[in-house]
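Hi, here's the filled form for the chain we discussed.

Project: internal
Contact: R.S.
Residues: 195
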Amino acid sequence: MDDRAALGVQMTKRARRKDVPAAAMTVGMKNTSPRISRRQWLGIAVGGAALTLGASRWWLGRMPWAADPNATKILVYASPTCDCCRAWTRHLKSSGFAVTKELMNDVTPMKQRYGVPEELWSCHTAVVDGYAVEGHVPADLIQRMLSERRAIAGLAAPGMPNGSPGMEGSTRGRYEVIAFTRTGGTEVYAVRGLV
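And the returned structure, exactly as it came back:
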């Protein structure tokens, strides 16, 4: 065996001893571990903190009861394919409600259970503190209804009115929010949009 071959065998054995690839070993070179600079360490730490914060905010958004124990809880029955229903629940969350969604293909049984007159039906139905909320009713009117505690079954924004929460767009129209009773009585509770 010539000197080069013997040197290669010897270096390979040395590389194995120190868990360093043979190609990285050269004659007279010390085995040094990679070092991380202070700037790199700081970047990793800040990135990890941002990732943790973002993940916790996402998780709390998925668990509304964990976000604020004093928030008013509202249960929304909606179709899993309804985009405006998702937009309306975001409106409620941004207004301080703790929203829980129950997705179902047909919301009709919930509308009937909570006494929503058929002429007031919309795409989703919600229940808050014993009251029904049908359609795109603004959050401030729901809060007003809860503070007044009137003898009504709930509020409705019939149909899908342009400009209502969850139905924002380039076209804004005038729409009425209707208070209704379980016996079918209705009255205009508020008027929104262009007046």
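Let me know if anything looks off before we file it.
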